[in-house]
Amino acid sequence: MTTARDVHALVLAGGAATRFGGRKLLAPWQQGVLLDGAIDAALASPALTIVLVTGANRKEVERAAKRHGGRISAIHAADHGHGLSASLRAGIKALPASADAVFVFLGDMPRVPHSMAADLLSTIGSRPAAVPAFQGQWGHPVLLRRSLFDEVASLSGDIGARAILKALGTNLAVVDTDDPGVLLDVDEPNDLEAMRHLDP
C-alpha cells in the first residue's frame, strides 16, 4: 500500500493537567479555549473523521468541541488516569475498521501549522509512520498506518508512541519544517502565556 486513502484523526484531550493546575484545555486561548487550536488543525487536515478522546473535565471538553460542528465525535477514555497511552488506546479502538491511517493531534498543542497533516500524508509513501521535525526534534501531529495500530494500542503508562517510531529507524518518514508550532505544547500556565506572545 503506497497511499493511505481512508485517513482519520484523533485529538487526545484526556489528561488531568496536574502541572497546569487542572482544566488546561479549557484555558482561554485567542477567541476561545486552548483545545480549539488542536481541533482547528485537525479540521484542516485531510482526515475523513475526527475523534476527540476525553478524560478529565469530560462534559466541558465535549461542549467546547461541539462548537466546531458535526465532523467531530467524542469518546471517553475511562482509564484516562493511567496516562497518555490510555487515550491513545481508546482512540485507536474507536477508529473504523476501514481506516488505513490516523493522524494523532495533542489537545495542548494549539500552534500546529494547518498544512502539516497534508504534508505528512503526501510524504509517508509506503512507510508505516510520518512525523514533522523542527531543528531535528520530532513533533506533532504524527501519522500512523494501520500496521502500527495494534502496537500502539498495547502501550501502557504515561507515554506516547515515540519508542515505536524510534524503532522504525530509516523506515520513518520525517517532514522537516521551519515552524516551531509542531513542538510547542502547554504544560504550565507560563507556557501558555509565553505562547500568546509569539507571532501568529
UniProtKB/TrEMBL annotation:
Q: Which InterPro entries match?
A: MobA-like_NTP_Trfase (IPR025877), Nucleotide-diphossugar_trans (IPR029044)
| UniProt GO MF annotations | transferase activity
Question: What Pfam families does this protein map onto?
Answer: NTP_transf_3 (PF12804)
Alphabetically sorted, this entry's keywords are: Magnesium, Transferase
**What domain of life does the native source organism fall in?**
Bacteria
Q: Please report the stretch or stretches of sequence annotated as the MobA-like NTP transferase domain.
A: 9-168
Annotated protein name in UniProt: NTP transferase domain-containing protein
